[in-house]
Amino acid sequence: MTAPDPAPRPDAPRRRPLWVAAGFLLTGLGVLGLILPGFPGTVWFVLAAAAFSRGDPRWEAWLLSRPVIGQLVRDYRAGLGMPLRAKWIACTCIVVAVAFSVGRIPVLIGQVGWVLVGLAGVAYITMKIPTRRPPTPGA
């Protein structure tokens, strides 16, 4: 038996346009992530879907109906993880981005911090996100 949904907050309807605006902003960042190497895309689409779900379910349905994007978000929500190839690409992009940018940081502590951020990203992808295996033929 599930707990009943809490009563909606009285200010919730006023916030819906803000959630929709946030959804569009996050969708734009996701599109940039598809274009720019080293900039993630999927995370922004996941966040956009969450924002749209709070603002207007029609926009969430629109995002989820996009051919590639919708599948990525649905897979994330279902806990299916990332394909191994996508993990390799993501980790490689993080390493390349950190390697090319760390020299531009003038302070040693900033450089160390940036490398640690990159390592944390790679560790999260490799250890926390499940690897989705391809479906077996005949299954």
Task: Provide a concise account of the structure shown.
The protein is mainly alpha-helical. It has six helices and two strands, in the order ααααβααβ.
Q: Strand order, biggest sheet?
A: 1-2
Structural class determined from secondary elements: mainly alpha
Could you name the ranges where pLDDT drops below 50 across 5 or more consecutive residues?
Answer: none
Describe the global form: globular
Mean pLDDT: 84
The largest sheet, given as strand count, sense and whether it forms a barrel, is: 2 strands, parallel
Helical fraction: 55-70%
How much of the sequence is in beta strands?
under 5%
How many whole angstroms does the radius of gyration measure? 18 Å
Distance between the termini: 33 Å
One letter per element, helices H and strands E, the order comes to HHHHEHHE
Number of helices: 6
Structure characterization notes:
Helices cover 69% and strands 3% of the residues. With 139 residues, the protein is mainly α. Strands 1-2 form a two-stranded parallel ribbon. Helix 2 (42-55) crosses helix 4 and helix 5 (84-101) runs antiparallel to helix 6. The protein is globular, with a radius of gyration of 18 Å.
Key structural traits:
DUF454, 139 residues, mainly alpha, globular, two-stranded parallel sheet, single chain, 2 strands
